[in-house]
User: What shape does this take?
Amino acid sequence: MVRKTEARELRPVNPATLEPVSAPEEVAEAVSDARLAAAHWAQSSFVERRALLGAVAAAVLDHAEEIAATVTAETGKPLVESYTAELFVALDNLVWAASSAGGVLRPERVRYPQPHLRHKRGWLLYEPLGVVGVISPWNFPFGIPFTQAAFAVAAGNAVVVKPSELTPLSGAWVERLFPNGLVRVVQGGGEVGEALVRAPGTAKVVFTGSGETGRRVASLAGERLRPVTLELGGKDPMLVFEDADLDRAVAGALWGAFANCGQVCSGVERIYVARPLQEAFVEELARRARGLRIGRGEELGTALGPLITEEQRARVEELVDDATGRGAELRLGGARPDVDLPGWFYEPTILTGVEREVRIEREEIFGPVVTVTAFGDEDEAVRLANGSSFGLGASVWTRDLDRARRLARRLDAGSVWTNDVSYSYGTGQASWGGTKESGYGRTHSKHGLYELSRVKFADLDRGRVPVPWWFPYDEGVLEGFRGMAGMLYGEGLGRRLGSAWRHRRGMLALGRRYFSRL
Ligand code: NDP
Assistant: This one.
């Protein structure tokens, strides 16, 4: 059963003992069960994997209404978002991983143009890791763990998921949708997450969450030399240039800053606007934000649900108060809305005149709050955008695609979007990940599949061609390799031939080695 404990937390507990369903000591057991499933699944062909994942997609569609209702009930997010940003994201990632794993992970031939290695047959093999531990947050409680599980299973692994204790029911769906014990869910708080990282059978951890917990997970994993992918927080900048389509940029900012009540790792938190546009931009953003309906996620037309916990709202309030206390101007919001519900709602909030060293400009807010600052030229825009300890995403709003290409290179972020924001988490083929304090490693795409595999180099040699650097070491070998070095790697034909001629005796000696043993 799931028991309501404090303010908002839902904890699955054993009704007899009132202990969490997955006690830390049970996690190792779940991992070792998953290892049995993994050993079997590692032998599966790509055709079998595709068929199984196809059945999972069908199960998601069959249960779509229930899953979306669970997600909205646990998080308060609008039902539309439970479809677009959870179910749709999950399905797209699953289907891409299912159809692409075979192409990406099939054995890859390694070619040898070097004359002394030409007879070799090299291969890169991508083997499953075993059991992948997935630790996930509450903000996309179905889309994130499901996506990570789908990629891991497509790469031939089994998975143990630890959802956030704030959203256990959404997480539980992930286990229910995958057959053959390939995905297990362990429920509980941080201690259960730590047990998953520590469990002897966990081959790798894919962690999505805050920087603070990410550091803890990385150090626990480091003690065990266990690889970990870290998808951490963000402070995404949005750069609006003078030639941007203002209407689209405002609509993008509205959604980027306030969707999921601002609780999005790649949500827009800092907007930098070309100075001549700034006032018009802020006014229009405020006008439209005023029209966003706040309320119950179940009601169609609701744009903003509540924040996830009372603590989260208190943090947002603290950051806004700190900013206004330091001279920032509140252009909209900054208070609890007048809604007929007791939940942890907060108005969409726009701040201008925020100095760079103020906390709200540096720390992740994770609420419906955005700052807008003017910039003079492109260099200043880049400096402002890159002047953050985070580097998850960034967006550029312009009609000039040359500028967009240039900025994609200059911005220090894991993803850069033009005239759009965030969307690529929901596409299987776009690689996802952050720089700096937004974490390391990539998920999604061929890179996500590689990170869920062990790369093995395998060499097939018939054993008929002699190896010239084996014993005995004599003058002939030394001279021969002097000649070979220049002949193979020298600059220009003249130098290459010159090297061979100068060291011709050694080259002949090497030749004799080959022919005497053939
Ligand atoms: P947390 O770091 O608080 O929690 C993430 C997960 O880790 C939860 O399941 C949590 O369990 C678990 N956990 C807590 N303590 C430990 C521990 N000591 N060892 C192992 N696991 C532990 O993050 P939030 O859930 O608050 O998520 C919000 C954060 O996630 C934001 O910073 C956001 O930017 C980031 N995020 C990043 C994304 C990305 O792709 N880069 C995507 C989405 C979110 P429990 O909740 O039960 O305490």
